[in-house]
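FORM 7B: Structural annotation worksheet

SECTION A. Query
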Amino acid sequence: MKDQKTTILEKPQSKYGKKNNPFPGLRPFKIEESHLFFGREGQSDEVLLKLSKHRFVGVIGPSGSGKSSFIYCGVLPILYGGFLTGKSTDWEVVVTRPGAAPIDNLAQALLKTDLVDEELSEEDKQIKKTIISSLLRSSSVGLVETIMQFKGNKEKNYLILVDQFEELFRFKDSSNLQSVNETLAFINLLMEAINYADAPIYVAITMRSDFIGECSQFPELTKQINDSQYLIPQMTREQKRRAITGPVAVGNAEIAPRLTQQLLNDLGDNPDQLPILQHALMRTWDYWSHFRDYDDEPLDIKHYEAIGTMSEALSMHANEAYEELDDEQQRICEFLFKAITEKRGGGNYGIRRPTQLNEIAAIANTSEEKIIQVIEKFRDPGRSLLTPQYGVPLHSQSIIDISHESIMRIWNRLKNWVNDEADAVSMYKRLAEAADMYQQGKTSLWRPPDLQLALNWKEKHNPTLVWGQRYHHAYERTISFLEHSEEEYEIEQRAKELQQKRRLRTARLTALIMASATVILFSYFQMSFA
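SECTION B. Predicted structure
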C-alpha cells in the first residue's frame, strides 16, 4: 500500500466487545431496518391515502431529505400490513430506478418479483428479460399486459416504486430521438397502468424537488403530480432528536445529552445534511464501539470529535479508503470518481453522473476487474460511499454511483478532481468547436499558446474515445485536428530553423570572404609600401 498510516479504526477492538451499528451512513435505510427509522412517525398515512385514492403518489423533496428511507421504512411496512382495506392485502413491490435505460431497468426489476418465480439459469434470465422488455415496448399498456400475463390467478396488488425518478430527466439526451422516445414511453407505461381499471397496479415515485419543472413536458404526469404529491416536510428539531436517540436505544446503548445537542446544532436547518448526520453517527458509533473506556459508557463528544465531526468525518472516511489503494488503484480511483461526477454547467458545484461499469473501465483504459477492486473499497458495509450497495454482484452493465452528492461537497480530494475534470472538458469542447470550424473552412489550425495548452491537456489527461464521446461526438476529428495542428506547426518550425541555418551559413561565408579579402588587401598594401 502507498500509505501505511493507521486509521482511527485500526487499533485493537475494545475489550467490551463491538456492538452492531444501528446507523446506515450515507445510504438509505432498507425496509428490514424500519425498526431503526425514527423521526417521521405519522407521516406515512397521508402518503398511503393519496396512493389509495389516485393509485399514484409522488414523494417530492430536496436532496438529502430522506425520501427513499421514508418510503422504504415509513410507507412500505404499513402497506404490507394491509392498509388498503377491501382489497387484497397481499402486495408485490417492484423497485426500479430509471438510470440510462428506464424500460430495461423496469424489466430487470420485474424479473426479480414473483412474476418469474422459477429458478432460472443466467441465460434463461436474459431471455426472460428480453421477453419482458419487448412486452413493455409493445404498447403504452405494456406494463399492464406484462403483469396480467405473468401473474396468473394470484390475488395481488402491484406497487411500481420508481426511486430517484429525476434520473429519467438527468439521463435524457434531448438531441437523441431514441432517448427522448424512451423517456416518453416509460412515462406512458406508468400512466396507462394506473388508469387501467381492471389491473391492480399502483405507482409511487420519489423525486428531487429541483426536477419537478421537467415533469411539465408530460401532461398526464403533471396532472397526477398535481393531484397526488406529498412534499416531504423538513424535520423539526424534536424529530431530528428522535432520529439520533432512537437508533442508539435500539442498539442497546446511550448517548450523552450534550452530544445530542452538539449534533443538532451542527445539523442546523439544512435538510441536505441529514445523510451527513447519519454518516457521522455511524462513524461515531464505530469509534465508540472500539475505544470506549467502560462497558456502559455513553457515546460522547470525544468520540464524535475523534472522527472529525460532521464537517470532516466524510472526507476523512473517504481518504481512508483511498489510502488503502496502491499507486495503480489510486490512478484508477481518480478516473472512476471523475466518470461518475461532473460539474453542473454555469455552477460551482458537482452533480452525480451514474455510469456503467464497462464505460468506466473504457474511460480509465483498464479492465473491469480492476475497476471492481477499487469500487469494493468504497462500498464496504462500513463505508457505503458507492452504490450498488455491498453484496449486490457487479457486472459490465452495473450502474456505479456515489451514494450521496454531499460526498462531492465535503471530500476535498473529490472536489479537486471535479474541478480538474471540468477544466479538461472545457478544453476538449473548445478544441472540438475549433475542429468543426476548421472543417468548414472558417478558422485555421491552432498555434501557440492555444496549441501548447491543448498539447499539455492531452499529455496530462490522456483522453480516450469513450471519454471524449461523452462530451462531443466528433472525438476522432477533434484529436486529428490537434495532431494536424501540431504537425503543421512542427513543419513550420523546421522550415524556420532550416532557413535560419542557411542565413547563418551565408553570413559565415560572407564573413569568411570579407576576412579573406581584408587579408589580401592588407598583404597587397604591405607589399606596395615595401
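SECTION C. Observations
The domain at 40-231 is CATH 3.40.50 (Rossmann fold). Residues 344 and 350 are 6 Å apart (CA to CA).

SECTION D. Sign-off
Analyst initials: ____
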